[in-house]
Design brief:
single chain; two-stranded antiparallel sheet; mainly alpha; two-stranded antiparallel ribbon; 6% strand
Amino acid sequence: KISELSTIVNKLKVNSNYYKKYRTNSYSDKILMATLTDGRLNDSIENDFSSAVADFRAKTILDGKGLITHPTDLPWKLSDWETAKKCYDLNKPFFEPHQIAITEYYFKYAELLSNEINKAKGSEIRVEERISGAESSTFNSYYTYSKDTFINNLKKGKNGYELAKSTKVLFEKCEAQSKQIESLNQENKKKILYVKYKVFFDSYLSKYHNYDNLPETLEILSSLNVFSDKVIALYSKETDDIEKQLKDAETADQIKKIVLGI
């Protein structure tokens, strides 16, 4: 109808302007999404996880008859976190908390990546475009899913996974510090300091093995590292005064306050 012509023309103008703006803003997204959704990113994460768990082993435990027992499955070799978590829960004594944390946050990161890639792919639109002077038009793909949202969400997942991997480093540092303190005490006996160090260490190690969540585990391991560093430093100093204060300290918190001077 003639009466509708002006409305149609206005709509065409709006759509044309939107398309020009959209094409300009989306071209870099098109290249980015094509790079991120071609499988290389997923392969990179899988390879990193394979490297992280390469030395993972289940503990061997003796049952009441003196026979070695071990779990049937290894959680980090399963297909998803829900299945792996059930395996960990059923076999907790066989595994270290850092193994649980790394497995958990890898599967969560991998699931997040899969979801983000599907969102990106699902936002693809095909646009017919004709280059000036060309005999035929071509169809190009663009992604309307926000590049910033895609990248920011993946950053959050990767940060969580990297923090989980740091639990292994922190735990290995705690073990090395414990061996160093034992060696220092053999060379320079500080009976009270060493006994109270062991009370604190065993208390926090018990907390660590009762893994509940990543932030709490990181805090426990960091506290162990700081405390152990302080004890190591004390072996090169006169400690009569501090050992007098430690003599009646019984709890880990009391010992921590005295040793760290807080």
